[in-house]
Design brief:
The chain is α/β, with parallel strands linked by helices. The protein is built from 13 helices and 11 strands. It has 2 domains: about 230 residues, Malonyl-Coenzyme A Acyl Carrier Protein, domain 2; about 60 residues, Alpha-Beta Plaits (2-Layer Sandwich), CATH 3.30.70. InterPro entries: Ac_transferase_dom_sf (IPR001227), Acyl_Trfase/lysoPLipase (IPR016035).
Length: about 325
C-alpha cells in the first residue's frame, strides 16, 4: 500500500500566508531557518505576492523575483512535509517535475537542504541568456489533444517544449510550457487568439537545448555539491525511471535545465510503484484541474489538514495517524 508525495515545479507567485506557520510551530521554525540561510525575510517568503511582477515583462525583477519565488516553493513544500512527518505520515516514494524533483530529492535525503538553497541562489544569479544572443522566454498554453503539439506549433521555428504541466480532467486538453527566443514565442502568440499564448519574458528560458549555457555555468557548482543515495525512491519529470542512487540524482539535476520535463513521467513512475494515494504538497495545488491515475489529496490549506486523517485512512496506506 504505497503512499506518495508529489511536488510541482516552477515558482510560487502567490503568497501562502502565515496561518499554517501559526498552527504548526515546526513549519514556522523551518521557514525562519530558511530565511536565515538565504537572507530573505520570513515575512517576505510568506506574504509577498509576485504575480504582477511575473507578468510585467520587466527583466530587472530577475534574479530577485525568481530566487525568492523558488525558495518559497521549495521551503514551504519541505516544511509541509516536515509537519506530516511530525504527525507520523511518511512517503514510500516521492515524485516531482523540475524544481519539484529537486524538492523531492532533498526530502529523500539525496541533496542536503542547505545546499538546495545554495543551488537555487547560484542558478538564479546567472544571466538570462549569453551575451550577444537573443533573449529567451517561456509561454504557458492549453493545447487540445485532437490538435497535438506539432499541430499547435504548426512549424513555428525557435520554439521548444519545455514542460508538460498536466492533462485536464476533461480528457481533451493538456497544459504545456513552451520556451524559445522571445521573438519566436511572440510570433506564435500573434497567430493564436488574443490571450491564448501568454509569453513571460521576465525570467528567461527553461528546459531546452537553448539553456546549455546555464548547464555549463552551473557545472562547477553542481560538481561541488554532495549527493547521497536517497532513502526512498525518487521519480523525476525527465523520465519515468526510478532514481535510487546518488549518481542518478546528480545526473537528473545536471540535465534539468536542458531537457524537457513532464508530469506524466512522474505519474507513470508513481503508478508503477502501485501508489494508492498521492499527497500533493506546495503553496498551491491543481488537483481539481488535472487527471491522475490514482487518488490524490492536496496538502495546502488548514482545511486540507483537517481532512487529511480521513483521506489517509480511507486509502489504507497508513495504519495510524499520529
Amino acid at each position: 500500500m504505497t503512499l506518495a508525495f508529489t511536488f510541482g515545479g516552477g515558482m510560487a507567485m502567490d503568497a501562502p500566508g502565515t496561518a499554517l506557520c501559526d498552527r504548526f510551530p515546526i513549519l514556522g521554525d523551518w521557514m525562519r531557518q530558511v530565511a536565515d540561510w538565504t537572507g530573505i525575510a520570513a515575512d517576505r517568503l510568506l506574504t509577498e505576492d509576485f504575480t504582477a511582477a511575473f507578468y510585467s515583462g520587466d527583466v530587472s525583477v530577475q534574479p530577485d523575483l525568481r530566487f525568492v519565488a523558488e525558495v518559497r516553493q521549495a521551503a514551504y513544500s519541505i516544511g509541509l512535509a516536515d509537519v506530516l512527518a511530525d504527525r507520523g505520515i511518511l512517503p514510500d516514494v516521492i515524485g516531482g517535475s523540475s524544481l519539484g524533483f529537486m524538492i523531492g530529492a532533498t526530502l529523500a535525503g539525496a541533496i542536503d537542504r542547505r545546499e538546495l538553497f545554495g543551488y537555487l541562489r547560484a542558478s538564479t544569479e546567472l544571466p538570462l541568456h549569453p551575451e550577444g544572443e537573443a533573449p529567451r522566454a517561456v509561454a504557458i498554453c492549453v493545447v487540445a489533444h485532437e490538435l497535438g503539439l506539432e499541430g499547435y506549433l504548426d512549424g513555428q521555428p525557435g520554439v521548444h517544449l519545455a514542460c508538460e504541466v498536466g492533462q485536464f480532467i476533461d480528457g481533451a486538453h493538456g497544459m504545456y510550457m513552451f520556451t524559445g527566443y522571445v521573438d519566436a514565442l511572440q510570433s506564435l502568440a500573434a497567430r493564436k487568439a488574443p490571450g491564448e499564448v501568454n509569453v513571460v519574458t521576465a525570467l528567461g528560458g527553461a528546459h531546452s537545448p537553448l539553456q546549455q549555457f546555464h548547464h555549463d555555468l552551473m557545472a562547477p557548482h553542481v560538481a561541488a555539491m554532495t549527493f547521497t543515495d536517497p532513502r526512498i525512491p525518487v521519480i523525476s519529470g525527465l523520465s519515468d525511471r526510478t532514481l535510487t542512487t546518488a549518481a542518478e540524482i546528480r545526473t537528473d539535476l545536471e540535465r534539468n535545465s536542458t531537457t524537457s520535463t513532464a508530469m506524466y513521467h512522474v505519474l507513470r513512475g508513481l503508478a508503477r510503484h502501485e501508489t494508492r494515494l498521492a499527497l500533493v504538497l506546495g503553496v498551491s495545488s491543481a488537483t481539481d484541474l488535472f487527471a491522475f491515475p490514482f487518488p490524490v489529496y492536496p496538502v495546502v490549506t488548514a482545511e486540507d489538514f483537517d481532512g487529511l486523517g480521513a483521506a489517509v485512512y480511507d486509502a489504507g496506506v497508513m495504519p495510524t495517524f499520529g
